[in-house]
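Reopening this one. Same input as before:
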Amino acid sequence: MNESIASIQTDALERIANAADERALEDARVGVLGKKGTLTLAQAGIKDVPKEEKAAFGQSLNAARAAITSALEEKQAALQEVADRKALDGVDVTLPGRPVLTGALHPLTQIRDEAIGILRRMGFALADGPEIEDEFHCFDALNTPADHPARNEKDTFYFDSGKLLRTHTSSVQVRTMESQAPPLRIIAPGSAYRRDEIDATHLSVFNQLEGLYVAEDVSLPDLKGTLEYFLRELFGTTTEVRFRPHFFPFTEPSFEIDVKLQVKGQAPRWIEVAGCGMVDPAVFSAVNAARKDNAFDPEKVTGFAFGMGLDRLAMIRWGIKDIRLLIENDVRFLKQFA
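Same output, byte for byte:
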C-alpha cells in the first residue's frame, strides 16, 4: 500500500509541475484530492489495511497530502507571477501616475452637518417626522387660521386624500411634543415643500432646520443668546446679528433674524437668515388637547422656536448667487467644495 501512495504522489507532483495554466492545475488538484481523486480513494481503503500497518499507512497518506498541497500552492504562485508579468507587458512604468478623483460632501450636507453639530453641542437632540403630513400637525396645531395663505392649494401641495407635503419642519415640533413631556430641546432638519416659482432664490423643494426648546422659565434672552451664539459659530465670531419684530401665527413675540454680510469689495449689508419667537400659548393648548393631558400647561412652561433655510445659509456662507446651482449637480460647481 505504501508503494501505491508513493506512486500517486509521484504522478501528482509531475502533473502539477507540467500544468501550463490555472485550469490544468485545478484539474490536477481535483484528480488527486477531489472526491474521486486518487489519493482520496486510497485513503478510503484504510479500512482494509491490517491493524498493525494502519499507523504507517496513515503517516504515508499525510506526508503525500502535505507534499501535494505544498506543490499546488507553489505552482499557483508561479502561475500568478507569470500572469502579473504578462499584464505589465507594454506598460511604461516611468509615465506619471493618473490622478485619483475623490468625491466630497455636497455643500448642503456640509452646512447641515455643521449646523447640527453646533446645536448638538448646545444640548439639542435630533428629531424627525413624516414629509407627508396632515393639516393638524402642519397648520392647526401651529395656530394657523383657516384663511391663512399657506393653506391655499396655490401655495401648498395637497393630495386627493387631504394630506399634504409639509411646508415646514415645524410639524416635527408638534409631533415631538405629542410624544414627549417637557423639558425638551430638539432640532428638526429636513425637506419642506411649497408651490414657489423656481428662480434664483426660490425652489419648490428646500431644506429647513427648525428648533424648539420648552421648559419652565424659558425666556426671550434664552432665545436671543442661543441664536446669536449659533450664527457666530457658523459665520464667524465677529458676525453682527439683529432681531426685527415680525409676525408668525405660532410664536408671540416673533422676530426675523438678520446677519451683516461683509463681501470683499462691497459695502456691508444685512441678510435675513431665520425666523424665531416665543411659542404661542395656543400651540401648547392644541398639543395638550391632542395628548389629552396638560403636560404643556401654558401657565407652567414656556418655550422658543426657530427655523432657517439650509439652502440660504449655504448661499450666504459661500456667496452662491443662484439657489438652482445647489440642485443641478454640475461638477464644475460642486468641485469647489471638494
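So the earlier flakiness isn't reproducible anymore. For the record, The chain has two domains: 2-87, 107-337.
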